[in-house]
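About this split. The held-out portion is used to measure sequence recovery: a designer receives only the C-alpha cells and must propose an amino acid at every position. Recovery is the fraction of positions where the proposal matches the reference. Here is one held-out target exactly as it appears in the evaluation file.
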C-alpha cells in the first residue's frame, strides 16, 4: 500500500531489480569529492536507527554492502554504490543519534543540505523512517531541504514487521494524514517496508526503477526535466 502525491513522469524501459549487485564506488566527505558524470543518483537518508543500511542491503541483494552497525550513526560520509545499469545509490549519513563533536555535526548538516538541494544528477530521495516513530523533527528538516528541488520522495516506513496487521494499517493511515496536512505540495510516495520480511521490497524496486529509467525517446521528457541549482 502506498500514497502518491504528484504525477510521476513517463519513463523508458525499467529494470525489475534496479540496484541488484551494486558495487561500492567512492565516499565523499565534501562537495569536491562527489563523483563526476551525469548518471542518475538516488539518495537514501534516515535517522540513524531507522534501518537504512538493512534496506540498502535488501535492495542490492548484498548482505553487507552497507554496514549494519551495532552503534547507529557511524556513517560520516556519503557513500556511493554503482548498479550494473550505471545508476548510483548514495547512502547519506544517518542523523539524530551519533555522538559526534558539534563541529562535525554542523559540517554534515551543511554538506547534506547542499547535496539534496543542488546535486544535479540526483533524481529522487528515499527517506527511511521507523514505522513506529515517523516524522520526527529531523525527518521534517530533511524534507524541507529537499522538497523545494521538485524531485520525488519515497518514504519507506521501516520495521513494519514489528507491527500487527491492524497497527500497520493505522500507521500508514496516520502517515498519509500527516503528508496531506503538512506536505500537500510535495511529490511524495509512501509505503510500508521491512528488510527482514521483504515487506514492500518489490514495490520499492518498481518505484526506483522508474526514477532511473531513461525517458522515452521523442516524448520531450528531457526538455521538461526541471533545472536545479548546481547544474
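Reference sequence for scoring:
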Amino acid at each position: 500500500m502506498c500514497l502518491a502525491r504528484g504525477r510521476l513522469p513517463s519513463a523508458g524501459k525499467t529494470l525489475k531489480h534496479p540496484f541488484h549487485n551494486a558495487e561500492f564506488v567512492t565516499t565523499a566527505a565534501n562537495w569536491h569529492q562527489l563523483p563526476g558524470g551525469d548518471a542518475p543518483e538516488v539518495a537514501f537518508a534516515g535517522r540513524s536507527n531507522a534501518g537504512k543500511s538493512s534496506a540498502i542491503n535488501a535492495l542490492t541483494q548484498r548482505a553487507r554492502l552497507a554496514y549494519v552497525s551495532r552503534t547507529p550513526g557511524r556513517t560520516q560520509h556519503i557513500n556511493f554504490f554503482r548498479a550494473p545499469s550505471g545508476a548510483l545509490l548514495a547512502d547519506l549519513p544517518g542523523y539524530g543519534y551519533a555522538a559526534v563533536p558539534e563541529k562535525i555535526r554542523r559540517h554534515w548538516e551543511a554538506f547534506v543540505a547542499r547535496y539534496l538541494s543542488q546535486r544535479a544528477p540526483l533524481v529522487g530521495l528515499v527517506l527511511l523512517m521507523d514505522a513506529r516513530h515517523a516524522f520526527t523533527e529531523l525527518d521534517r528538516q530533511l524534507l524541507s531541504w529537499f522538497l523545494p528541488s521538485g524531485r520525488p520522495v519515497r518514504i519507506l516506513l521501516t520495521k513494519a514487521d514489528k507491527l500487527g496487521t491492524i497497527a500497520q494499517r493505522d500507521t500508514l493511515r496516520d502517515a498519509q494524514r500527516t503528508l496531506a496536512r503538512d506536505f500537500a505540495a510535495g511529490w511524495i510516495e509512501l509505503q510500508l517496508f521491512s528488510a527482514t520480511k521483504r515487506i514492500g521490497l518489490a514495490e520499492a524496486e518498481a518505484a526506483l526503477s522508474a526514477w532511473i529509467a531513461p525517458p522515452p525517446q521523442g516524448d520531450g521528457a528531457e526538455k521538461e526535466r526541471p533545472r536545479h541549482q548546481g547544474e
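Annotator remark: Strands lie at 2-4, 23-28, 41-46, 78-82, 88-91, 122-130, 153-158, 188-192.
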